[in-house]
Amino acid sequence: MAAISDARAVAILCLALALSLLAACGPATSDRESGSAVNAPPLVLAASSLQESLEAAADAWAAKEHERPTLSFAATSALARQIDERAPADLFLSADQQWMDHVEARGLIDPKSRANFVGNSIVLVAPRNSNLSWSPGGDLSLALGDGKLAMADPDAVPAGKYGKAALESLGQWNAVSPDIVRAENVRAALAFVERGAAAAGVVYGTDAAASDKVRVVATFPASSHPPIVYPLAQLNSSRSKDAAAFRGFLLSPEGQAIFRRYGFTAP
C-alpha cells in the first residue's frame, strides 16, 4: 500500500483533532439559553389584538437604527402558558391583568418592569354587507336569528372574558351562549365574521378598525365589563440587551402615539 504523503497525513491529524475538540465541548447551547445577555433583538410575546400597532412600533424602533424586535402573536392565555413552560422570550404584552398576574405569581417576570400601557373597547361586529342591527338594550338572540355569534374563548382568552362579562351584565348571555362559536383568539373570532361563518362577533374596537370586511354594530358600555387594560413586563429569562430599551419606547410618548393611531386608548 502506498505511503500517505506528509501533507495528507497532517490534514488527517488536524481533522481528527478538531473532531475530538468538538466532542469534548458537548452539545451546542444557544445564546438565549446560556444565561448571558446577547445582542439579539428582543423577542416579544404579544396579544393577537396588538398585531398591526406593534408591527408599526417595531418598524419605528428599527428606523432608529436598532435591530427590529421579533414579534410573536397569539391569545394571551396561550402566551402565558408558553411562558409557564419557560419559552425563551424578553417581553410579554398581555391583553388583561389576570394572565400577567398569573406569570408574576410564578416569578417569571420582573415586577418592577410591569406597567399598563394601553386600553381598548369591545364591540359587536357584523359582515359589512349584513343588515344585522342591535343596541345594548335590545335582544341580541333575536337580532342573530339563526346565526352564530363568534367570540374568543370566554373561559380563557381576555377578549372572550370581557365579552362574556358584558353580555352577562346586559342580561344577554344565557340566551346567546348556545349559539356561540368559540375561537382560539380574538383575530380568529374576527375571521369567522369576515368569512360570513358567523352572523356577528364580539371583538375589540381596534380589531374592527383593522378590518374592511366588517362594520361595528354597537359598542358595549364600558360599565358592562371590567376595564380593558393591557399590561407589559420584561421576563426574568430576558437576555436581549435591547429589551428594556424597547419596553421604554413602547411606554414613551412616541410609542404611545403609534398605539393611539390604531385606536387604542390610554390605560
Considering the protein shown, what is the CATH homologous superfamily of the largest domain?
Answer: Periplasmic binding protein-like II
Question: What kind of assembly state do the chains in view correspond to?
Answer: single chain
Which class best fits the helix and strand makeup? Answer: alpha/beta
In helices, the fraction of residues equals: 25-40%
Total number of domains: 2
Outline the biggest β-sheet. 5 strands, mixed
Could you spell the SSE succession in H and E letters?
A: HEHEHEHEEHEHHEHEHEEHH
What attributes characterize this protein structure?
elongated, 5-stranded mixed β-sheet, D-Maltodextrin-Binding Protein, domain 2, 11 helices, alpha/beta, 267 residues, disordered N terminus
Summarize the structure.
This protein has 267 residues and is of the alpha/beta class.
Please provide a written account of the structure:
This protein is α/β, with parallel strands linked by helices and 267 residues long. It has two domains: 43-119 and 228-261, D-Maltodextrin-Binding Protein, domain 2 (3-Layer(aba) Sandwich), CATH 3.40.190; 122-224, Periplasmic binding protein-like II (D-Maltodextrin-Binding Protein, domain 2, 3-Layer(aba) Sandwich), CATH 3.40.190. Helix content is 39%, strand content 18%. It contains eleven helices and ten strands. It has helices at residues 6-25, 51-62, 76-84, 97-105, 140-144, 158-169, 173-176, 186-194, 205-209, 243-251, 253-261, and strands at 43-47, 70-74, 91-93, 115-119, 122-127, 149-152, 180-183, 200-204, 214-219, 229-234. It has a five-stranded mixed sheet. β1 (43-47), α2 and β2 (70-74) form a beta-alpha-beta unit. The chain is elongated, with a radius of gyration of 25 Å.
